[in-house]
Design a protein that fits this description.
0% of the residues lie in helices and 64% in strands. The chain is an all-beta fold. It has a 5-stranded antiparallel β-sheet, with no helix packed on it. The protein has a 5-stranded antiparallel β-sheet with strand order 10-17-12-15-14, with no helix packed on it. Strands 2-8-4-5 form a 4-stranded antiparallel β-sheet, with no helix packed on it.
């Protein structure tokens, strides 16, 4: 588990909790008793969901421990879709994560992060989803000092995604791998600056349908 914020002066106590993939053709994916991280009265849980199918698919609803999560940003291109959702959930160290999709898809991955903030919604959220390109950019994502930017990306063919962040802080990768004819990347930035011009970009070798999303959250005290 990554947890740099708790020891680097950030009040967020940020942690990447983990990710799970189901490569099965379904319309409802249930990730039973998934780790949600440690409890806190101001805990925010962020879930990045990436889908791959033989036809275009979309997320209709998603719940965490029986509670509805809220859409932050996301989009689709070709037969892949990527969505970032969030929920304020103070209690429970584990719970079912359920993702409902339109029709069926062949693969679903959920990636879970948790941190503590009095904020109840994202500071900013951006998606780019070209249908034929070697690059995609979630542009001008707003950052706040002491906050976090969470990013996720997917390519409609199995080719390595190379991410980049044009701000002064480090981009941390939590996973980067392929399978079932798609490639996925996920990561985050712990921000030390206030900026409205930073970009999260991805690049691939062959022109493809791409999706990249980023959602930023600020640290505020209750």
């Amino acid at each position: 588990m990554f947890n740099r914020a708790g020891t680097s002066g950030f009040g967020l106590d940020f942690a990447y909790v983990g990710q799970t993939t189901q490569n099965t053709t379904l319309s409802t994916y249930t990730f039973s008793s998934h780790d949600l991280g440690k409890e806190h009265p101001e805990r925010m849980i962020v879930i990045a969901i990436s889908l791959g199918g033989s036809t275009p698919v979309a997320v209709t609803t998603s719940t965490v421990a029986g509670n509805a999560s809220t859409f932050a940003t996301g989009g689709g291109a070709g037969n892949v879709r990527q969505v970032i959702r969030y929920i304020k959930l103070p209690t429970g160290t584990s719970g079912d994560i359920v993702v409902n999709v339109t029709g069926t898809c062949i693969s679903c991955r959920v990636t879970v992060y948790r941190f503590n903030t009095a904020a109840t919604s994202p500071l900013d959220a951006v998606t780019d989803n070209p249908t034929s390109s070697t690059t995609a950019t979630a542009a001008d994502i707003e950052c706040s000092s002491g906050g976090v930017v969470i990013g996720d990306a997917v390519s409609d063919i199995n080719q390595t995604i190379t991410p980049s962040w044009n701000g002064s802080d480090s981009l941390e990768t939590v996973y980067s791998n392929g399978g079932t004819s798609i490639y996925r990347w996920g990561g985050y930035v712990l921000s030390s600056e206030n900026s409205t011009t930073n970009d999260l970009s991805i690049s691939v070798t062959s022109s493809d349908s791409l999706v990249v999303s980023a959602a930023s959250f600020e640290f505020t005290k209750g």
